[in-house]
Predict the 3D structure of the following.
Amino acid sequence: MQNGAKMDTILKKIDEDNLEKTVFEEAGKILRNGGLVAFPTETVYGLGADALNSEAAAKIYAAKGRPSDNPLIVHIAEKEDLKRLTTSILSEAEVLIEAFWPGPLTLIFHKRAEVPDGTTGGLSTVAVRMPSHKIARELIRSSGVLIAAPSANLSGRPSPTEAKHVWQDMQGRIDMLIDGGKVGIGIESTIVDMTVNPPMILRPGYITREMLEEKIGPVEVDKAAQAERIFEIGENYQPKAPGMKYRHYAPRADFIMFEGSRPNVVAEIQKRKQKEEAVGKKVGIICTDESRDCYFGEYVVSIGSRKNEKEIAANLYKTLRNFDETDIDVILGETVSRDGFGQAIMNRLIKAAGYKLINTDG
Ligand code: TXA
Ligand code: MG
């Protein structure tokens, strides 16, 4: 894409259980020629380019409107491919790879010189992930290129969990979109920095701290990855994952979260709704199945049952994105449990709300 000129984006729908060869041949050709192909992974849709071609990587930044200091994750199809990106794989990393690859875990290593600065945002390290999604793996394997891929959304918007979200953001900006249906997990991979001791979680995800510690012992968490209030990190703290510093996952409307005991949260949300409506604002509510009946109005959305954190994760970005299709001015949301995978869900919710979190227990 040059000077923001529109291109025709090829759309190909394929079935995970019937990997049509011609689609991969076409996509592989585009990738080898330095083009952009969006594809499903088990976490969210990715926007792929040849990771070892810095001109191709640069196109990703242009298509997403992404700040150039925000590095990309390199996706590989075989564990062997890791050696093309780094020479420093410590035993702890080997244990995690054995346990969690292929899957939603990204590991950070010192990079080889062959990995261009255009892919790593000028950092001396490289983030690597081996996805488990069949379409993602077949694309990497058959194209013969290692694929740099951020989430396939316009910078700042919620990540895409369905092909139609990618189409909304990227149609005319990329060469091809492979539609493989809805993704399974719905939240981006856990990122762990393996260049520090002890290893450090830079972004929480489906693979939790407990799961990592069970394999390799103590793991730390970057302040920016667990803070829920801006004062806990300070306005000027630089997150270790550069992407964590940007406004992210955010809906267009003002989004405010409420935590505390269930009755207090419900009461405060109802009160706030009335207050906003009194000044002419349109209000939406994000709740759970357990509290759905406590609220009234046109835009009350449940993100799932509190008993099923996987369901909540899978619905999260779609719910935020759908609000952008409405004329809602303010979204009031309930918090969810921070246990296990809940840590990652809350991390995304808090970031989407720009740290606007009200404690109703007073
Ligand atoms: O699940 C995922 O990880 C998805 C799918 C497509 O694989 N990808 C994804 O990429 O979430 P992206 O670009 O949206 O987020 C990558 C994050 C950013 O916060 C970036 O700053 C961080 O990874 N990152 C990448 N390379 C890094 C490095 N060398 N050091 C520290 N952080 C890094
Ligand atoms: Mg992203």
